Each structure stands twice: as structure tokens, then as C-alpha cells.
Amino acid sequence: MPTVTFRDTVVEAAAGEDVLSLLLDGDADINYLCMSGSCGTCCVRVLAGGEHLEPISAMETHRLRVHDGTRRLACQAVCRGSGDIVVAQP
Predict the structure, then answer these.
(1) Which one, of 63, 84, 81, 65, lies nearest residue 5 by Cα?
(2) In contact, 52 and 77? CB cutoff 8 Å
(3) What angle do CA 47, 50, 54 make, to 5 degrees?
(4) Residue 68 CB contacts under 8 Å (≥ 6 apart), including other chains
(5) Distance between CA 13 and CA 53 in Å, rounded?
(6) Range of the domain at 81
(7) 20, HSE (Cβ side, Cα atoms, 13 Å)
(8) H or E stretch including 46?
(9) Number of domains forming the structure of the chain
(10) What tens digit of pLDDT does each residue of 31-57 get?
(11) pTM of the predicted protein model
(12) 19, 54 in Cβ contact below 8 A?
């Protein structure tokens, strides 16, 4: 089963689930606030496995002001369930 890794938390990367929800279910110590993509608090750097996330949305790109795919909002980054993903908070 593919996984999402954040610091010392490793959870199964269920297809269709967002990274933030998966990490919170695994008791990860990740910063977040609104859970809707409005605040940007859950911004993460994708260290590996970005190709296993659904494409970044226009709203997410606008909020992050980054276009290279290395930063995502964990609450908006949806897993494809096709491989391992590693994220970190800046």
C-alpha cells in the first residue's frame, strides 16, 4: 500500500483522500487551520512522490503563488493512491 510520510508519521495513502486528513488521522504534528485552502497554514513541500498527487488546482496555485509543484496545500493535495509521497513543512 502506498504511503504518505511527514516527519515520523507514516500513513497509508488512500486514493481520493487529501494529505492533511490522512496525516491528522495518523496523529501527525502538522500545522493547519481552516482545512479549506483559504489560509495556507498547511502548506507543505513535496520532497518525493508529487506525481502521486492529483494536479494542483487553480485556486491552490493562486493561494501559494508557486507554479513548480514543490509546494502544495496539504488540505487540497489529493492522493492518487499510486505511490509513496513524502512531505515536510517549510
Answers:
(1) 84
(2) no
(3) 150
(4) none
(5) 10
(6) 3-88
(7) 20
(8) strand 43-48
(9) 1
(10) 999 999 999 999 999 999 999 999 999
(11) 0.94
(12) no
